[in-house]
Specification:
The protein is of the alpha+beta class and about 300 residues long. The protein contains 8 helices and 17 strands. It has 2 domains: about 120 residues, 2-Layer Sandwich (D-amino Acid Aminotransferase, Chain A, domain 1), CATH 3.30.470.10; about 160 residues, D-amino Acid Aminotransferase, Chain A, domain 2. Helix content is about 25%, strand content about 30%. The chain starts with 7 loop residues before the first strand and ends with a strand.
Length: about 300
Amino acid sequence: MPMQKTAKIWFNGTFVNWDDAKIHVLSHALHYGTSFFEGARCYNTSGGPACFRLRDHINRLNTSMKIYRTVPPYTAEEMIDAVLETIRVNNMKECYIRPIVFRGYGELGVNPVHCPLDTVIAVWGWGAYLGADGLEKGVNVCVSSWFRLAPNTLPNIAKVGANYMNSQLIKMDALANGFDEGIGLDTNGMVSEASGENIFLVRKGIVYTAPIGASILDGITRNSVISLARDMGIEVIEQMIPREMLYIADEVFFTGTAAEVTPVVSVDRVKVGNGTRGPVTERLQKAFFDIVSGRTEDRYGWLLFV
């Protein structure tokens, strides 16, 4: 999907024109993947534009930097204020939000600490990540031949640019074979996550999802859906999931900031359930969208109004 340009990008504390937000070709991040980023959303609720769990996203951004021995150049409050101002300056009612901190131009070499930190916030319009029909009709996925990152190699809890080379392999592998998305297994052959989404499955009324130790990103939408499910009286179990459970599940769905709550209707061309969005998925999807649209009370305090 082509980028939808907006007017201004927040660049190291100053607003610049979209086309003028440039970096040097010898920036450290370009060569070594030293970037820390988030993807958040602003929804046009019945009470006006509101960011979904923005503080949690910024806190995770800082956590990613800490893992890599990097001191955040701005406080969490400064980043939150900058995100809100970027949305206002661009007059956005709803948008995708991309804050990114990266090692810029200084010197080349594996050691990043002598390179300056650049901070950018961009916002733009971005609809359903896996297609508008995907939210209702579901998507067809495969188990990728590529595994997710092994423990003690690259930290999966950190949301960093380098990790997404693995995601690209999973995504391209799936698309090349006619699927919408790919699922990566961990190094023990257990279900981990998709290229950019966490995975849930439903069997006999119980919801299962892989634990943090299964080489997954600690997803904010994942956490939200777990809270919604438990508050609705649905049992949620975080456990290691063998691959074959994907084939015998009654329902499978993805969660993520971009994907939101997206049903999976087949895995490796094996139909999931009856091949349509399942009732538990639909209930959780509705509960999620009711909150982010403002149709129901935000009892969790997830929305931050612009």
